[in-house]
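Format notes (please read before filing issues)

Several people have asked whether sequences and structure tokens are stored in separate files. They are not. Every record keeps both together, in the order shown below: the sequence lines, then the token lines. Line labels are part of the format and must not be stripped during preprocessing.
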Amino acid sequence: MASLRGLSRPARSLPLSQLCRRTYTTTPTRCASSEAAAAPDLNELENTTLTHEQLRPEEKKLFRPWKRAADRTTQLPGQKYKYHPPKYNRGPLHPIQSPPASDPVARDFVPGPFNLPRLKQTFQSTIASDIMTLTYKHVPPGTPPKETPQRLREWDDSSPYHKNRGLRGPRGAPVLPLLERDITFNNIPEIKEITIATYVPEAIKNPYNLIVARSVMLALTGTMPEITKTKANVAQWGIRNGDKAGVKTTLYGNAAYEFLDRCVHLVFPRIKDWQGIKATTGDSSGNLSWGFTPEEMKLFPEVEVNYWLYPARMIPGCRIFVKTTATSDRQARLLLQTFGVPFYGPIRN
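Then the structure lines:
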């Protein structure tokens, strides 16, 4: 097929039987030995149909693919012969597998990345190896693995209905927290996503507050935020269930690293008398959060450069939720400390 692509268009239109036909010459050749006589003649390779025979004028008139396409009343069934990746992944052993995300045909294909954030480049070149070195624990060969403690509660069999029942969850906790895993080369914690949310209860009476909050969030993240609604009734504040009273957006990939880079190097150093983020923050599963007041929101360069566009009293504060791949708050705190996020106060593991 590679050799046919290099041919001219008239030659490619010939049938395969005519392409394979050769015209032999009767030119006598002199050979110095029997081995040279047995070798293929180069003249025969040159004197082929591909180089000598051309299309006749009547054949050139018939070869008009654009005319056939214009005269076609119905389109060819292109979707029938086009490759479609599977809609569902049926496991690693299924004969039909989805193409990788880097393939433009894949359903989850996203073009890019078109840039490499400085913070992410620092993480890949320096921080990842430093975290793995700091958290290394030497285990001598032959050491038995640690047993995972039983975190579910058993029934005391005080009732006949307790028989064959499943174990109960821990007391006072709706869900089980993640078990902390040792950091190795294949599970170094990194930032997964960053969610920015703001609550504007004043927007219930004045919708312009919601418009300002949405425009500020759009300037900070570059993505269109979604409007959130209240989920409870608070009669003292005049809040009813379903009122539009906030906006939020989530950043992934390079956008998340760029936003954290602006927070660390442009916003945190300009906050007056700021001690840092409380070390007790976290949900025991590797996700940390902090907040910005309306005065601190004005320190972002995207808001500061066009500060006259936003009414000063309508600029809201926001909450930042950093979701990481760490399995404990200790590992997530170590990751953010390497990025330059300061913590203060008592540390809770």
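For reference, the curators noted about this record: DSSP finds 15 helices and seven strands in the chain. Confidence is low (pLDDT under 50) at residues 19-32, 45-52.
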